[in-house]
Design goal:
This protein is an alpha/beta fold. The chain is built from seven helices and nine strands; from the N terminus they run βαβααββαβαββββαα. The chain is globular. Keywords: Flavoprotein, FMN, Oxidoreductase.
Length: 196
Amino acid sequence: MTVLAILGSPSKTSRTARLIDRSRVALAALDIELQTISIHDFPADALLYGQFSHPQIQDFQQRVGAASGLIIATPVYKAAYAGALKVLLDLIPEGGLAGKPVLPLVSGGSPGHLLAVDYSIKPVLAALKASAIHQGVYAVESQIGANANGEAELAEELEQRLQTAVHEFAALLGVNAPAPHALRYANDFISRLISL
């Protein structure tokens, strides 16, 4: 099973991209492949002029069509999702998300942008006919970091919310996934058995 993540950040190494990275790890544990696409994967002219016949845009539309579900990840600027995300969403044909669950992941500078998920992102996804739109995860940028190896590290509370959201999203995809706390309990139990 494949899920497509659309990164709405203008930077491939942004805090928003780190939310996708952590989601990738959680989905991989459930045997779900996560592929990512961003504006960097397209020639600027094809995006700027909306060249729907361009091979890379057609490939994107096919990947959206073939995906079991989507993750839409974006930073919030001035109470709205990023323009880069808008450009990519405009490439999806009308009704292009029909039958697909969507998990929004949003990052912002303060808790004050939390409502952007409901007031700016979800209406666009609904207009594209997403079958189920998860409530999503909003992260304050200060909760998102990286370790010495450059791997994403999230504040504990955010990590728990993201894990829960990913498992709920997997359920929307029809994957029977144990709840994150059950996984943690099982891992602790196995560790104790091994140490005996």
